[in-house]
Design a protein that fits this description.
membrane; alpha+beta; 962 residues; golgi apparatus; transport; Coatomer_bsu_C
């Protein structure tokens, strides 16, 4: 058959192969061209022809006419590349006929393989032995067994190590124990005399896999020598220990001593595996402390960022179950902050913040202060982000342990004028909370804030700092200093002047300041508010739009003035409220009425000037209505003050802030209680009194392990994973009950991969040959392994495992079919499987973030999915709780903000995926007159997949369905 007449591609046509081959189907080679090249004498042409034949064969073409040609012209070649390609060709070519019998031509192949196994060149012997590892035809292998056993005594280690692997693969075949009944004994003798590390590793692996008792006996007889073995065999030893201890937990005491001895070997891979094995096998404090110490050493010694992240994940797991031990190693974990990677630093701080106790708080805060001071050097690009993380960490420490606030608050206040706005906002929020929760620090914080206020360059930081000044300046000197500081930062009034030619009257002090203004001869017409024309000088316009030009250079106006001239009138409204509160408080603490009236008049002048500036025609962005109304309200307040208004402005605002902090603390306490998993033992659980056991021959480690096991049984920790109902929910039916082949899958979702354990049952009375489970994926899913062919006896079953990699949080679909042949019918039968939909809820989990961070992410993320509310639920809070439960998200809106019945509800939800992706949801609903709910649910994320998938999930679930 010509290659051009090929059948359409089908996954069932593919052959299993140990190499991944990329094949360009655009220009296929003809069979006669390949045949001519193979018959020629050109070695390079033969190599190219063999590659083309392998690719065609691998993609479903049979090309039977090439087999004899290859035997005649290729089999006898001495070229190593040709021999390697020949073995690859023989691996994937059909070696049996339709009835499963070995082809007669394979006798020639068998003779060639025997000659290669006796070849004087060690490379030919080695690759031939590796080829035997991939053969499953016992008729082809049986004549070669004596030659394989002879290779165990070859002088070259490359041949010996591959001979061991070949013996292991032959022994594992169906009926392999009869082909080589003495294989374990031969390998054990070989292991006793072998010196090559790789060959010893393969021999020990063979015993571990095929004769576990012999491997255990060999290990226990060489306990003292295990630390001196090579890295590869030590890894197999750890695998053996894990397997033995799971089947015989009572014997793990003598194996743990081997693991602890391996903690001092030079191989970091072995050390890491030892620590993980210790944690999985023992809960004794000595073992956990040794594992945690090992992880901390790896954290310092390894330079690779990925390794550090993996080690931090292991430490985080230890922190969850063995917090008391991890507390003692908190300073060792903190050393990971020396890494320049922000992800490593963030994970380190997350671990450390949950390990803080009154004993180590001083050391931790001192270390964090040193790291903050290091960020002032400006050597690294992301110093601002790192400083923000440190500020948030110190903030958390100060909230948990208020006594340390005095040691850090003044240091952090130096960063109020930081160029990184997010970091400065975190600092001012921290100061605002500390000054309320630590009254003893109020005077020092206010003094420091007034001294550094002029350094602030962010409007949001200024707004928060002004609120602090207005609420916590209580004494006469503080109030006067606050008013004076604000006036200095606002600069001289008025905020702008217009020349005499404009038709407007100039400000009172403009003539006296005229020499300082650079006069520019260029003029242009301007349209006034009444529609008349006037000429405006360039110097006057410069004074309106920015700082005043003094002899060609920028003067240094106050920070508040610069922001106001840029059109930030929300800040102007905050300034007006701050001045109003300070003047009202001045009336209480200042007995001199003249001074009070003077301050009142000055504040009114500033407010009127801001309104005048906002209503001028020279600003690109005039004052908005909300800011205008707020400033006018402050003017009216200072002109006519009542006792009720004074109480609202001077007391109610601070009381509201105090209540907000109390609600925040209450929510944090509730979250901590929710994290504390309270589990109890079942009524019929076994109680094991270790005090009554014989302690002869038991080490201290084993005694500790017994204690910890009893504690776990008492608290029910062993029963947490035994959720049979949850397991049943993950079983999916793939075929119908009337299909000749029944299949169902148990889906296990890990962080980055999905494991499908498919049970296939032959419901017919015939033997099914070449049965193959063919799977394909849609979305960001990738099938890891190629399917294998199986032979299924009548009314028997087979467990098939498939691994699928997940690369993003997006709903994916797994589909496929089961293909098989019967002995009576040569055609292949196809059974189509039901689709498996991967739920996005398996990859996102509730998380928390600050309101500022939520707003920043909401503004930055470009993907939005807007879902209209369509539900039969008529209660707003019930609908909110239903969405939270359905989407596995956390509500960031405080419960106090959701109290009451007003017919409206707005809440923010947040979750984080295992891939580090953020999912933001805003719910805005309104109750209509007929009792139904209306509104929108808006989803935002950085990637399109999570926005669409979460939107589909909400659309499906919001009606109240399961």
């Amino acid at each position: 058959m010509a290659v051009s007449d090929r059948k359409p591609y089908s996954p069932s046509m593919e052959k299993s192969c140990s190499f991944l081959i990329e094949f360009d189907k655009g220009a296929p080679a003809l069979a006669n061209e390949i045949k001519e090249a193979l018959e020629g004498s050109d070695v390079s042409a033969k190599i190219d022809a063999l590659k083309k034949a392998i690719m065609l064969l691998h993609n479903g073409e049979t090309i039977p006419q090439l087999f004899i040609t290859i035997i005649r012209y290729v089999l006898t070649s001495e070229d190593h590349t040709i021999q390697k390609l020949l073995l690859l060709y023989l691996e994937i070519v059909d070696k049996t006929d339709a009835k499963g019998r070995l082809l007669p031509e394979m006798i020639l192949i068998c003779q060639n393989l025997r000659n290669n196994l006796q070849h004087p060149n060690e490379y030919i012997r080695g690759v031939t032995l590796r080829f035997l590892c991939r053969l499953s035809e016992t008729e082809l292998i049986e004549p070669l067994i004596p030659s394989v056993l002879q290779c165990l005594e070859h002088r070259h280690p490359f041949v010996r190590r591959n001979a061991v692997l070949a013996i292991m693969s032959i022994y594992k075949l169906p009926g392999g124990e009869h082909l080589m009944p003495d294989a374990p004994e031969a390998i054990e003798r070989f292991l006793a005399s072998e010196q090559d590390a790789s060959a010893k590793r393969n021999a020990f692996l063979m015993l571990f896999t095929c004769a576990q008792d012999r491997a255990v006996s060999y290990l226990l007889s060489h306990v003292e020598a295990v630390p001196d073995w090579g890295e590869s065999i030590q890894m197999v030893v750890l695998d053996l220990i894990r397997k033995v201890c799971r089947s015989k937990p009572r014997e793990k005491g003598r194996y743990i001593t081997i693991i602890i001895s391996l903690l001092n070997v030079p191989s970091t891979a072995v050390i890491y595996e030892c620590a993980g094995t210790l944690v999985s096998l023992s809960s004794a404090p000595t073992a956990i402390r040794a594992a945690a110490t090992t992880y901390c050493q790896l954290l310092q010694s390894q330079s690779d960022h990925n390794v550090k992240l993996i080690v931090l994940d292991r430490l985080s797991e230890l922190k969850t179950s063995h917090q008391d031990i991890m507390v003692d190693l908190i300073m060792d974990v903190l050393r990971a902050l020396s890494s320049p990677n922000l992800d490593i630093r963030r994970k380190t701080l997350d671990i450390v913040l949950e390990l803080i106790t009154p004993r180590n708080i001083d050391e931790v805060v001192l270390a964090l202060k040193k790291e903050v001071m290091k960020t002032q050097s400006g050597e690294l690009e992301k110093n601002g982000e790192y400083r923000q993380m440190l500020v948030q960490a110190i903030h958390s420490c100060a909230i948990k342990f208020p006594e340390v606030a005095s040691t850090v608050v003044h240091l952090l206040m130096d960063f109020l004028g930081d160029n990184n706005v997010a970091s400065a906002i975190d600092v001012v929020v921290f100061v605002r909370e500390i000054i309320e929760t630590n009254p003893k620090l109020r005077v020092s914080i206010i003094t420091r804030l007034l001294d550094t206020f002029y350094q602030i360059r962010s409007a949001r930081v200024c707004s928060c700092a002004l609120w602090i000044i207005s609420e916590y300046c209580l004494s006469l000197s503080e109030v006067e200093s606050g008013i004076s500081t604000i006036k200095q930062c606002l600069g001289e009034l008025p905020f702008y002047t217009v020349s005499e030619e404009s038709g407007e009257s100039a400000s009172a002090d403009s003539s006296s300041k005229a020499p300082s203004v650079v006069t520019v001869s260029s003029r242009r017409p301007a349209v006034l508010a009444d529609g008349t024309y006037a000429t405006q000088s360039a110097a006057s316009e410069t004074a309106v739009l920015g700082p005043i030009l003094v002899q060609g250079s920028l003067a240094a106006p106050g920070n508040l003035r610069s922001m106001l001239l840029n059109g930030d009138f929300f800040l102007g409204a905050v300034v007006a409220c701050t001045l109003s509160k300070l003047v009202l408080r001045l009336e209480e603490v200042q007995p001199n009425v003249v001074e009070v009236n003077k301050a009142n008049a000055g504040a009114l002048l500033i407010m009127v000037s801001m309104i005048q500036l906002g209503q001028s025609t020279f600003l690109v962005h005039p004052i908005d209505n909300d800011s205008y109304d707020r400033i006018v309200l402050c003017i009216r307040l200072l002109c006519n003050t009542g006792d009720e208004m004074r109480k609202i402005w001077l007391q109610s605002c601070r009381q509201s802030f105090t209540k907000m902090l109390a609600d925040k603390q209450f929510r944090e306490m509730e979250e901590m209680k929710a994290k504390a998993q309270i589990s109890h033992a079942q009524p019929d659980d076994l109680i094991d009194f270790y005090h009554l056991k014989s302690r002869k021959g038991m080490s201290q480690l084993e005694l500790e392990d017994e204690v910890q096991d009893d504690l776990k049984r008492a608290t029910g920790e062993f029963t947490k994973d035994a959720d049979d109902a949850n397991k049943l929910n993950r079983i999916l039916q793939l075929t119908g009950f009337s299909d000749p082949v029944y299949a169902e899958a148990y889906v296990t979702v890990h962080h980055y991969d999905i494991v499908l354990d498919v049970t296939v049952i032959n419901r017919t009375k015939e033997t099914l040959q070449n049965l193959c489970l063919e799977l394909a994926t849609m979305g960001d899913l990738k099938l890891v392994e190629r399917p294998q062919n199986y032979t299924l006896a009548p009314e028997s079953s087979k467990q098939i495992r498939a691994n699928i990699k997940v690369s993003s949080t997006e709903t994916g679909v797994i589909f496929g079919n089961i293909v098989y042949e019967t002995s009576n019918v040569l055609e292949r039968t196809v059974v189509v499987l039901n689709d498996i939909h991967i739920d996005i809820m398996d990859y996102i989990s509730p998380a928390t973030c600050a309101d500022v961070a939520f707003r920043n992410m909401w503004a930055e993320f470009e993907w939005e999915n807007k879902v209209a509310v369509n539900t039969v639920i008529q209660d707003e809070k019930e609908f909110l709780n239903h969405i939270i439960k359905s989407t596995n998200m956390k509500c960031l809106t405080a419960p106090s903000a959701l109290d009451g019945e007003c017919g409206f509800l707005a809440a923010n939800l947040y979750a984080k995926s295992v891939f580090g992706e953020d999912a933001l949801v805003n719910i805005s609903i309104e109750k209509q007159a007929d009792g139904k709910l209306s509104g929108y649910i808006r989803i935002r994320s950085k990637t399109q997949g999570i926005a669409l998938s979460l939107g589909d999930k909400i659309t499906l679930k919001q009606k109240g369905g399961s």
